[in-house]
Backbone:
């Protein structure tokens, strides 16, 4: 994938990876290596000049609607309540728009249930600016999940949070993954986050990004936060850190 025409910037090249249905994959790598580009290619926001992207056995040729996305900065519309922000994807996607009009009460109930799952019961009528950063991230997750996506793409969704809130949200995501069987791809700079949450971790090279390591995480689920203090957990984090440092040096 090259940005800005034939002479433009080559963001990723020879980038191959496969994520199985229901799997939790994490993507880590040096800053600027093309992680967000990978997310945009998978979701069909960009179409690569060379190569193929396949989601649920279909070639990606336009934005994929079985995907839910959450990014680092929750972009909630300030003039809509949290609940109305969560319902927004249903208004945008054609297929859902008609159903939303007919079955609004059903969708409101679903949004309220999601809010409860992420610990925001009763906050639906608040405006985003009345919520803390961590609460907005939680609401952002509800918005990514409202249309019951088969694939959830998370791009640094907890980056801006303090470590306690981040760990709390790791558990929310862990439980969502266990309960809904959704396939998840998480881009993160936080190696502990990757090892805590993922079944498989892909390490990318420096730009132009490609996969230089495919690491299976051996820990059984459900994982408890206590695992963060185990030496075999930290060995994996340490090794990944070395892989990324080497990739940066090689750049
Ligand atoms: N729309 C765009 N137009 C031009 N260049 C872009 C565009 N988006 C990204 N790039 C460039 O492509 C390269 C890869 O960017 P990308 O955001 O995918 O990396 P990243 O690994 O997610 O970065 P970070 O870890 O810093 O968030 C960078 O050099 C970036 O400047």
Residues:
């Amino acid at each position: 994938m090259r940005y800005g025409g034939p002479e433009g910037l080559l963001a990723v090249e020879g980038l191959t990876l496969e994520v199985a249905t229901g799997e939790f994959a994490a993507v880590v790598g040096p800053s600027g290596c093309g992680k967000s580009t990978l997310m945009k290619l998978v979701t069909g926001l960009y179409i690569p000049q060379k190569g193929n992207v396949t989601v649920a056995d279909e070639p990606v040729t336009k934005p994929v609607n079985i995907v839910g996305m959450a990014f680092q900065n929750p972009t909630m519309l300030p003039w809509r309540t949290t609940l109305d922000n969560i319902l927004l994807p249903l208004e945008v996607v054609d297929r859902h728009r008609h159903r939303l009009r007919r079955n609004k009460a059903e969708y409101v109930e679903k949004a309220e249930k999601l809010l409860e799952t992420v610990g925001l019961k009763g906050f639906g009528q608040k405006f985003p600016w009345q919520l803390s950063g961590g609460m907005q991230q939680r609401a952002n997750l509800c918005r990514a999940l409202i249309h019951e996506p088969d694939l959830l793409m998370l791009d640094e969704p907890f980056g801006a949070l303090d470590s306690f809130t981040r760990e709390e949200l790791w558990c929310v995501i862990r439980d969502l993954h266990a309960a809904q069987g959704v396939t998840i791809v998480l881009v993160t700079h936080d190696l502990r986050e990757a090892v805590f949450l993922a079944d498989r971790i892909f390490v990318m090279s420096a730009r132009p990004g490609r996969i230089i390591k495919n690491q299976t995480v051996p820990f059984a689920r459900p994982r408890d936060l206590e695992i963060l203090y185990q030496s075999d957990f930290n060995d994996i984090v340490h090794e990944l850190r070395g892989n990324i440092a080497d990739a940066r040096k090689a750049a």
